[in-house]
Amino acid sequence: MDHKLKLLDLVRQKIRLKHYSLRTERAYIDWIKRFILFHHKRHPASMGAPEIRAFLSHLAVARKVAASTQSQALSALIFLYREVLDRDVGWLGEIERAKKPERLPVVFSRGEVRAILLHLDGQHWLMASLLYGAGLRLMECLRLRVKDVDFAYRQILVRDGKGQKDRVTMLPHALVEPLKRQLEKVKVLHEEDLAEGFGEVYLPFALERKFANAGREWGWQYVFPARRRSVDPRTRQERRHHLDEKTLQEAVKKAVRAAKIAKPGSCHTLRHSFATHLLEAGYDIRTVQELLGHKDLRTTMIYTHVLQQGGKGVRSPLDSM
Fold it and tell me: Taking Cα atoms as reference points, which of 113, 149, 125 lies closest to residue 265?
């Protein structure tokens, strides 16, 4: 048992050296624990490709997990063997893969987006407006820093997005004044924290060691800070983190219901709608790809299928009668 605890500490250490997020750290640790328990608490060093295959196939067949869930489990185990145990597991052979459903993204119409936003207010309205108006992912919105909002050039710099890539997207004109008012409130909150001996936020990568007081500077503060300070689980320091994602997720779900929209919409549906409405307006697909931060154009191409009116653009014979 002590050996197992030591192993997990090594995993955490490697993850932090590579600057992975706390969310990724927790997910990887959880999958490694499940892998060990599935094989009756055997140490991973005594196992290899056959045991990995058995575990992943079990997830697909017995647990019926989604393809993305199985992929995350595989990523965690590859990280464990390559980065922590310094072993290449080689070719894993035939794994029973979870089937990835071929689904088109759900998209709100412009009218539906308006109706949803009408049922939101305050920070929730502003954040949801950014998801739709700038094509931000939920966590990209929550992790926005003051310095990444450029009012002069009307743009937002999304740092360390999916795949640890930076990109630039537009800052909608309609959100300039609401964002300025939001930052005025955040400034007051930050000054109160500083007066109480706090005011420091989490800094990515090794910036905390490189720039000792940068975490207290105004530019590094979150645009959407949490109401209360909390203890950082890694450093044990009391800090003000960004808002929890569940607050916006729940607010958007309530707004979708209040707007009487039957579609299974979420925060991410607003981003889907951003892409689809830009393509509807005639913008080049490469431009939309860059704004979304997609590595592969094929990921963006899925929105062109949404644009094909019912039945791939074919007119029903019933409409000709």
Answer: 113
Whether the CB-CB separation of 73 and 54 falls below 8 Å is answered with no
**Residues with catalytic function:** 137, 162, 268, 271, 294, 303
Instruction: Evaluate whether residue 129 is within a structural domain.
Output: yes
Question: 281 in a domain, yes or no?
Answer: yes
Whether 248 contacts 128, CB under 8 Å? yes
Which residues constitute the domain of residue 54?
Answer: 2-84
74 and 132 belong to one structural domain? no
The answer on 145 and 287 residing in a single domain is yes
Residue 99 counted as domain residue: no
pLDDT in tens, 150-165: 999 999 999 875 656 7
Cβ pair 201, 239 in contact under 8 A:
yes
Quick one: 138 and 268 in the same domain? yes
Burial of 262 (0-12, 13-18, 19+ CB in 10 A): exposed
91 belongs to a structural domain: no
Distance CA 127, CA 252 (A): 10
pTM over 0.85: no
Distance between CA atoms of residues 36 and 219, nearest Å: 43
Domain end (from 68, 84, 100): 84
Instruction: Give me 152's structure tokens.
Output: 């002069």
Estimate to the nearest angstrom the gap between the alpha carbon of 130 and the chain centroid: 14
Q: Answer yes or no: is pLDDT of 3 > 70.
A: no
Q: Which two tokens stand for residue 192?
A: 């109160």
Count up the domains in the chain and report the number: 2
